[in-house]
Write a structure and sequence with these properties.
The structure is a homodimer of 682-residue chains. Chain A is α+β, with helices and mostly antiparallel strands and 682 residues long. Among the domains of chain A are: 96 residues, Acyl-CoA dehydrogenase/oxidase, N-terminal domain (Butyryl-Coa Dehydrogenase, subunit A, domain 1); 140 residues, Butyryl-CoA Dehydrogenase, subunit A, domain 2. The first copy, chain A, is 51% helix and 10% strand. Chain A is built from 23 helices and 13 strands. In chain A, the strands form four sheets. In chain A, strands 1, 2, 3, 5, 6 and 9 form a six-stranded mixed β-sheet that branches. In chain A, strands 4-8-7 form a three-stranded antiparallel β-sheet. In chain A, strands 10-11 form a two-stranded antiparallel ribbon. In chain A, a hairpin with a 5-residue loop joins β10 and β11. In chain A, α13 crosses α18. The interface between A and B is large, with 85 and 84 residues.
C-alpha cells in the first residue's frame, strides 16, 4: 500500500486563499453553494487527515465495502474466521509492511502503520484489534525486542500471516502491574533452553487475543531466571520469549493448555483466550534479546544495567499498541457521532408552533448540546493524535537508524507519558461519545443494523486494554510530579511518595519547549485572564496552563506531607489520589488544546481555519464548563465569567449547528461504512 | 405467589433498639462479629425491601437458579424461546396475578406486581422486559383502558399466557410524540368495524416487543376516525384497539405484515419487531372503551370532554410500565455494583510499601470514589422507588374501587411527574453505574461469564424506552413551571412558553405537602446554610430545596421573555432548554433525597439507621460535588464549603469502605444470580 507521507492535494481542489481577513466569518453551510461546501469539507478533512493522509485515502479505498461491517448474526466461530479471512486479504494487499523495517522485509513507516490500523476502526473494531495484535503487538515485540535472528526468522511470516501470533503479557492475577508477572522462564544451561512455566493459577495468561484459536506462537512475557557460573538462580525481571503454542492442526503443543475466554461485551471477531505453561522448553535463542541476553553458561548480560530502566525501556518500545488503541478510539467516536449527527438532521419530533412540520431534533438546543461539544472534542483529540503518531514515528525512525544511546531519553519518556495520557483521554471520550450517540438515536440507536450499538459493545474495553485508564492517568501525573526523574518508575506508591517528598528542589515542572504558536498567543494575551476576552486564544491557553500549574504545585505540597514521620507514605499517596488523577487529566487536556491550536495555525484555508477556530472555542468552553467548579473554587474564573462560559457553550452550539453536517463529513468515513437504515427513513 | 404486603420480620431476628444515642457510630464491619454483621445486613435489607418485602422474598426464592442467567451462546431464536419458556414457568407459579383486579381473575396488588417484575431484573433483563410487555404493558392496556367485555375475554389468557400480546404504540416516525401517531382506526358503521391502517412508511409500528415472533395480538394505538350521523369523518385522537396479528401457527393474519428488528445492543430474549396494517378490520368492540366509545351509528362519546385531557388520562393509566422500568434499572445497577464491589474486595494490584502483599484495589481512594458514591445513590434511588411504587399502588387501588371522579387529579399528575423524573434519573444512574462497574473490573468485567458486560448491553435502552429520558426530564420541568395547570399538556413548545409567559401570577411552585420529618429537620436548621454544619440533614435538605426554587424562579423569568413581541416563542423555549432540563433533574434529586431521609427516619434499627445516615451523607456530598459549579456560581455555597464538600466525599468513602460488603449484601441479590468466575480467583 502507498505509504507516501508528503503528498499534497492537487492545486486544483485546494483553496488558495491565505488567512488575510481575521474578521471574516465563515457563513453557515446553508448559505454556501454545493461547491463551496465541498471545498470546505475537503479542507477540513485535509487538516484532520494530517501527515499520513495518503495512507488514510488508501485504507478508505480498501475498506469502502459494506461487507466489511460486522454482522451480528455470525456465531463466534464464524465471526472469528471471517476476521481472519479479512486480515488475509489485507495482508495480500501489503497492508502490514509499513510496520516493519526495510531490512526486515517491510517498508519502515511507523506512522503509516498506526494510521492504517486506526482507519480499520471505521470498518470493524474486531478487525482493527486482531490486526493490531498480530502486526502491532506480536509483530512489534519481535521487531522491537528481537534481533536479526528473530527478524530473519519471523518477520516475513508475520507480515503475510504464515505465522499467527499472540501477545501473552497479561495474567489472570496481573494486568496493570506487569513487573509482578508470575510466569517464569528458567534457563537450563545443560540443554541451552528456557523452561516456560505457569507456577500458580494467577500466573495464567489471560484475555490474550488470538490465544483461544488462531495463534500458533506467543510472545510470552515472563520472569527470566538464570544463574551464571557459581551463582544462585535469580530472577532478572520480565523478558519476552517466542513460544510455539499450537501445531498446524490447532492442537495445543505438549505442556501448553489454552482455553477460550468465550463471549465478551463486544469484539466477537477476536479470539481471546488463556494459556497455561507446564514446563515448556524453548531454545535459548527464543529470548527476544535486544536488551538482554543469557550466555551459554547462564550468565545474564544487558547493555542496560539498571533493571528498572531495562524493563521500562523494553516496555517503551511496545508503545505502538497503546497509540493505535487511542487512535482507533478516536475513529470509533467519530463514526458514532457521524451516525448520530446525520440522524439528528433527518429525525423530527414534536410540532413546531404555527407550522405543519415537526422540528428536526438537531434544532433543539438540548440535542445540540449533546452532540456538538463531543464533535468539537473529537476534532481536538484527532489533532493531538496526529501529533502523537508523528512523534512516535520520529522517535522510532531515529532509533532504527542509530544506536540506542542516541535516542533522546527524555523525549522518549515524554512520548510515553503523552501516549498514556491521550490513550486514557481519547478512550474515555470515545466511550462517552458513543453512549451519547446511541441515546441520541433513541430506539434506532439500539438496533445493530444501525451500527452504534455494535460500536458501543466493541469500544467498551478500550478504556481497559493497553493500560487501564485510571492507572495511565496516574502515571502521567507521577511522571510530571517527579519531573521524569530516573529510577522513579517501578517504585511502589509509598516509595514514590517518599521520593517526591524528599526531592530537594521545588517541583516546578519544566514543560517541553513551548511551541512557537502557543508562545506567540500567550504573549499577546493579558496575564490576568479575567481582563481579556474569553474567545482570545491566548487567554484560553493561559486558563488551561494555569490550572495545570496550580494542580501540580498543590499536589506536590500535599505529597510532601509524607516527610512527616507521623504519616504513612501510602496513606499520603492514597489521600491525594483524586488530586493526582486530576493532574494527569488536565495535563493531557492542555496538550490536546495546544495541538488544536497548532493545527489551526497550520491550516492554509481561511474558511476552514475560521470554522476550526469556532470548533476549538466550543472545545475550550465545554472543557471549562465540565470543570467549572474547580475554576471557581480556585478563583481562576469569576462567577460572571463562569456564567458567560455556560452561555457561550449554548451560543457556540447554535452557531455551529448549520455546520454540523460539514463537520462530520470532514471525518472522511467511507459512505459504505456508514450504512444504517435509520438514515434512510429518519 | 405471596402478595402479603404487611409482613413484619419475626421479632427474634430484629434489633429492638431505638435510636437513643445520636452520637453513637456504627463500628466498621471489620470490627463486628459475624452475627452483628448479619444483623446489620438484615436490617439494611429490611429497609431497602420496603413494603413489598414479602414479594421480594418470594421472587428471590423463585429466581435463585443459576440457569435463569442469560447465556450468550444462545442464538437469537434460542434466547427468545428460552425466555418465553421461563415466562411460562412464572405464569404457572401465579407470578402475574397481582397485576390484575380480583374480579378480572387476579389478586389486585399493583405494588406487588411491579416489585415482582423489578426482582426479575436480578436474573435476566430480557425476562423482565418480555414479562413487562406481556403483563404490564399489554395486560395493563387491557386492564386499564378496557371494560368488562375485555376483562372477561382477555385477562385470564394474559395471566396464563394463552394469549400472547404486544404493545404497539411507538411508530418508526413517532416515539416521544405519541399524540402524532399516524396509524388510523376508521370506524365503518356498515359493518360496525374499525379499519386499522398504516398509511405511511413512518406509521409503521416499530421496536415492538413480541411483534417479531411470539405475540398473536397487539394493543394498537391509533387515531380513531369516525363520523356521527351527518358529520364528516374526523380524528378523535389516539385510542387503543385490540388487534389480532398472527394465527396460532405464527403466520401474519391477512393485511398484517410483521418483520423483525433483529439483533440489538442487548435483550436478545425479547423479540422486537415491526407491524404494518393494510386496512385490517376488527369488530367495534375491540376498542378499549373505558374512556371513549363509538356508538353503532358512528357517534363518538367520552366521559372526558377535553381531547387532551382524555388522551393524557388514558396514557396516565399506563404508567406502570414506566415505574417498572425505573425500578428494574435500579436493580440492574445494584447488581453490577455488587459484582464490582465484591471483585474490588478480592482483586489486588501493585505492591504495598514495606509489605509482601499487594494492595486490594478497593483500598485505593480512586477505586472507592468510583464505586461508593454510586452505591450511595443506588440506596437513595431504591428508597425513592419504593415510595413511587407505593403511591402508584395507592392511586390505582383507589381508582379500582371508585368512580374516576373520585381520583385526586392533582395527585395523579404528581405521580406521573414523579414517575417521569425518577425513570430518567434512575436509568441514567444505572447506565453510569454499570459502565463504571465494568471498567472497575478491568478485563474480567468485559467477559460475559462475569455478567456485567451483558447487563451493560441490556440496560442501555432503558434510557430510551418507556419515555426518552431527555423528554421525560423536560416534562417534569414543564409540569412544575406551569404548576400542573390543566390544558397545558399537548401544547407545542412554543405554545407552552406562551402559556407560561402569560400566566398572571408569579410561578411559585407549591410543593406537595412537606413531609413531617423533612419539616422538622428544616425547622431545626439555620436558614443560612453556610452557618450550619454540612452534615446537618436539615441543611442538606435546604441546599437541595433552595437550588430547585432558584432554578424554577429564574427559568420562569427567562421564559416570560416570550411575552415580548420581538421574540419567537420556540426560540425562547429552545434557548432555555438546558435550564429547563436542569430544573427537571434537580427537582427529582430533591424528591430522592427526601425519600432517603424518610427511610432513615423509619428505620427502627439504630446501627442500620446510623450507617444509612452516612450513606445518605455520601449521596448528598457527591450530588453537591457533581453540581458544585452551579452552587458556587449562584452563591449557594462558599468556596470554603465547596472545598469541604470535595474533602467530605473522600472522607466518607474512607469511612464507608469497611462497610462496602455489607452495603451490597443488603441488596439481597440471590447468590445464585451473582455467579461470576472472577469472584472465585480475583
Amino acid at each position: 500500500m502507498a505509504t507516501t507521507t508528503e503528498s499534497q492535494p492537487g492545486a486544483t481542489d485546494r483553496e488558495p486563499e491565505v488567512r488575510d481577513d481575521p474578521e471574516a466569518v465563515t457563513p453557515p453551510t446553508d448559505d454556501l453553494s454545493d461547491d463551496e461546501r465541498a471545498l470546505l469539507v475537503d479542507n477540513l478533512r485535509y487538516a484532520l487527515d494530517g501527515r499520513w493522509r495518503a495512507t488514510r485515502d488508501t485504507v478508505r479505498e480498501l475498506s469502502a465495502r459494506g461487507d466489511l461491517l460486522p454482522d451480528p448474526s455470525r456465531t463466534l466461530d464464524e465471526a472469528r474466521a471471517r476476521i481472519l479471512g479479512e486480515m488475509r486479504e489485507l495482508a495480500q494487499s501489503g497492508f502490514a509492511t509499513a510496520g516493519f523495517a526495510a531490512d526486515h522485509g517491510g517498508t519502515g513507516d511507523v506512522g503509516a502503520s498506526i494510521t492504517a490500523i486506526e482507519m480499520l476502526g471505521y470498518a470493524d473494531l474486531s478487525l482493527m484489534v486482531k490486526s493490531g495484535v498480530q502486526w502491532g503487538l506480536f509483530g512489534g515485540a519481535v521487531e522491537n525486542l528481537g534481533t536479526a535472528r528473530h527478524h530473519d526468522r519471523y518477520v516475513a511470516g508475520i507480515i503475510d500471516l504464515d505465522l499467527l501470533g499472540c501477545f501473552a503479557m497479561t495474567e489472570t492475577g496481573h494486568g496493570s502491574n506487569v513487573q509482578a508477572l508470575e510466569t517464569t522462564a528458567t534457563y537450563d544451561p545443560q540443554t541451552r533452553e528456557f523452561i516456560i512455566d505457569s507456577p500458580t493459577p494467577s500466573s495464567r495468561k489471560d484475555y490474550i487475543g488470538g490465544a483461544a484459536q488462531h495463534a500458533t506462537t506467543a510472545a510470552v512475557f515472563a520472569q527470566l531466571i538464570t544463574a551464571g557460573p557459581g551463582e544462585e538462580p535469580e530472577s532478572r525481571g520480565v523478558h519476552c520469549f517466542v513460544v510455539p503454542i499450537r501445531d498446524s492442526d490447532g492442537n495445543d503443543l505438549p505442556g501448553v493448555t489454552t482455553s477460550d475466554c468465550g463471549y465478551k461485551g463486544g469484539l466477537p471477531g477476536v479470539d481471546n483466550g488463556r494459556i497455561m505453561f507446564d514446563h515448556v522448553r524453548v531454545p535459548a535463542e527464543n529470548l527476544l534479546n535486544r536488551y538482554a541476553d543469557v550466555e551459554a553458561d547462564g550468565t545474564y548480560t544487558s547493555p542496560i544495567e539498571n533493571p528498572n530502566r531495562r524493563f521500562f525501556t523494553m516496555l517503551g518500545t511496545l508503545i505502538r499498541g497503546r497509540v493505535s488503541v487511542a487512535a482507533t478510539a478516536g475513529a470509533a467516536g467519530r463514526k458514532a457521532l457521524t451516525l448520530a449527527g446525520r440522524y439528528g438532521l433527518i429525525r423530527k419530533q414534536f410540532e413546531a408552533p404555527d407550522a405543519d412540520n415537526e422540528i428536526l431534533v438537531m434544532d433543539y438546543l438540548g440535542h445540540q448540546r449533546k452532540l456538538l461539544p463531543l464533535i468539537a472534542k473529537s476534532y481536538a483529540i484527532a489533532f493531538a493524535q496526529n501529533e502523537l503518531t508523528e512523534e512516535l514515528h520520529e522517535l522510532q525512525s531515529v532509533r532504527d537508524d542509530a544506536s540506542d544511546d542516541e535516542v533522546d531519553d527524555g523525549r522518549q519518556r515524554e512520548l510515553e507519558s503523552a501516549a498514556a495520557g491521550l490513550k486514557a483521554y481519547a478512550t474515555w471520550h470515545a466511550s462517552q461519545a458513543i453512549n451519547v450517540s446511541r441515546e441520541a438515536c433513541g430506539g434506532a440507536g439500539y438496533l445493530d443494523e444501525n451500527q452504534i450499538s455494535l460500536i458501543r459493545g466493541d469500544i467498551d474495553v478500550f478504556t481497559t486494554f493497553e493500560g487501564d485508564n485510571t492507572v495511565l492517568t496516574q502515571l502521567v501525573a507521577k511522571e510530571l510530579l517527579s519531573a521524569y526523574a530516573e529510577d522513579v518508575r517501578g517504585l511502589s506508591a509509598g516509595g514514590w511518595v517518599r521520593f517526591i517528598a524528599t526531592m530537594a528542589r521545588d517541583v516546578v515542572v519544566e514543560k517541553t519547549a513551548v511551541r512557537q504558536v502557543v508562545q506567540t498567543l500567550l504573549e499577546g494575551s493579558d496575564e490576568d485572564t479575567e481582563k481579556s476576552n474569553l474567545t482570545d486564544r491566548g487567554t484560553q491557553l493561559r486558563l488551561f496552563r494555569n490550572r495545570e500549574d496550580h494542580l501540580i504545585r498543590t499536589c506536590a505540597q500535599r505529597l510532601r506531607r509524607a516527610n512527616d514521620d507521623d504519616n504513612d507514605p501510602f496513606e499520603v499517596f492514597n489521600n491525594a489520589q483524586d488530586h493526582l488523577l486530576k493532574v494527569g487529566r488536565v495535563h493531557t487536556e492542555r496538550i490536546v488544546l495546544e495541538a488544536f491550536v497548532q493545527a489551526i495555525d497550520e491550516c492554509d484555508s481561511r474558511s476552514a481555519a475560521q470554522l476550526l477556530g469556532k470548533v476549538c472555542d466550543l472545545f475550550v468552553y465545554s472543557a471549562l464548563e465540565d470543570d467549572l467548579a474547580w475554576f471557581l473554587m480556585h478563583r481562576h474564573v469569576s462567577v460572571e465569567r463562569a456564567k458567560a462560559i455556560r452561555r457561550g457553550v449554548n451560543e457556540l452550539c447554535l452557531e455551529l449547528r448549520p455546520h454540523l453536517r460539514s463537520l462530520v463529513d470532514a471525518f472522511g468515513i467511507p459512505e459504505e461504512l456508514l450504512a444504517a437504515p435509520m438514515l434512510e427513513h429518519g
